[in-house]
Write a structure and sequence with these properties.
By secondary structure, the chain is mostly helical. The protein has one domain: Up-down Bundle (Glycerol uptake facilitator protein), CATH 1.20.1080. The protein has helices at residues 2-5, 8-36, 48-75, 81-90, 98-130, 141-144, 159-180, 192-207, 217-236, 250-276. It starts with a helix and ends in a 20-residue tail after the last helix.
Length: 296
């Protein structure tokens, strides 16, 4: 077992656990806002829509921070297929590892959603009874939204949410590349996880309402698949929300496209300029976490 952990298997375990932590705390904060706090005897509502979004935005940012601290020293804590693909395309991350990293992230996300459901099942069931929600029907989107994303009604078709996911993920990956760029101003004192967490807060508060800022195929599809199994049916898969009736592919393809755009724009606009100016790598900068020397 110790020998396995020194190979890619150790990295995959770290990605699985890191993504598990991400979803436990990310979906967990949504469960608190949607179903738990307002039924817990601590008030019938929180701050309504704006306050709820602040809680969710900061909760997801902290979830990302904790996940990176958990997995960053082993795998670099991609915890996002869009980040993995971007690092393969623009850095030296091996393409042969991409499928297994993505698989580990998906499994971790699914298991995180399962744990959130186990913990909050009572609150979810109670909320559905109180609001006459039939799981799997159109009126079950509020409880389904604990797990995965959906488009705003004012977006009339798939194009709006797709652009939203491209833009949000382009910002995310571009900022991640800036944070880990040894030629730029990488954070000192192991502060990179906090900076990336703040990036997620910024994306959520500025670009979150259109489509729920999945900006991560694993974050969306793993819990979406769990929600489908748990009875949300077509609301989860294929993702029927009236204005878009086959939605599930958008938080997968959109973030991958956006991540590649963000990576290329950062490298062409900033990194190549830094290198051309003769900037030298910051001493001790570590852009991908610890690496392993043995492979499968």
């Amino acid at each position: 077992m110790a020998a396995l952990r020194r190979t890619t298997g150790g990295e995959l375990a770290a990605e699985l656990i890191g993504t598990f932590v991400l979803i436990c705390f990310g979906d967990g904060v949504v469960a608190m806002a949607v179903a738990a706090l307002n039924q817990s005897g601590r008030g019938t509502q929180i701050f309504a829509a704006s306050g709820d979004w602040l809680i969710i935005g900061w909760g997801w940012g902290l979830a990302v921070t904790m996940a990176i601290y958990v997995a960053g020293g082993i795998s670099g804590a991609h915890i996002n297929p869009a980040v993995t693909i971007a690092f393969a395309a623009r850095r030296d991350f091996p393409w042969r590892k991409v499928p297994s990293y993505i698989a580990a992230q998906m499994v971790g996300a699914f298991l995180g959603a399962l744990l959130v459901y186990i913990v909050y099942k009572g609150a979810i069931d109670s909320y559905e009874r109180a609001n006459h929600i039939v799981r799997g029907n159109a009126n079950s989107v509020p409880t389904y939204s604990i797990f995965a994303t959906f488009p705003a009604k004012y977006l009339g078709n798939w194009l709006g949410p797709f652009i939203d996911q491209v833009v949000g993920t382009a910002f995310l990956v571009g900022f991640v590349f800036a944070v880990v760029d040894e030629f730029n101003q990488p954070p000192r004192g192991n502060l990179a996880p906090w900076i990336v967490g703040l990036v997620v807060v910024a994306v959520g508060l500025s670009f979150g309402a259109n489509a729920g800022y999945a900006i991560n195929p694993a974050r969306d599809f793993g819990p979406r698949f769990f929600a489908w199994i748990a009875g949300w049916g077509k609301v989860a898969l294929p993702g029927d929300y009236g204005n878009v009736n086959t939605y599930f592919w958008i938080p997968i393809v959109g973030p991958i496209v956006g991540g590649l755009i963000g990576a290329f724009v950062y490298d062409i606009g900033i990194r190549t300029t830094l290198i051309a100016r003769g900037e030298t790598p910051s001493p001790g900068a570590e852009s991908r976490g610890r690496t392993v020397e043995e492979e499968f």
